[in-house]
Please model this.
Amino acid sequence: TLRLWSAKSPKDFDLSYFNQSISNCNQVEKPDGWLTFGNPWEKARPEYTIPVHFYGRVQHINGKAQWTDYATVIAMPYDTPIPGYKTNTVNTLRLWSAKSPK
Model:
């Protein structure tokens, strides 16, 4: 940590970790619900929730391009403070959670 501000925005996965075991000489992976009870260090930021569009196509209507026939996912950020080592600098790690709009 060089007392520099930074921000990162990767995806937050509720089931990103997994438990591994060996069964009948095969590796078996099962999800680990590590966020089942939440993360005490992260703060939900619903005021910055945004829709994210996937797929679709561009149509030209009245001389203007419009994106149509898309699927929407709602993205909500969660901020986690990351303190620097032997500094007064605290950076923010922003993770995004994807939710269904329905």
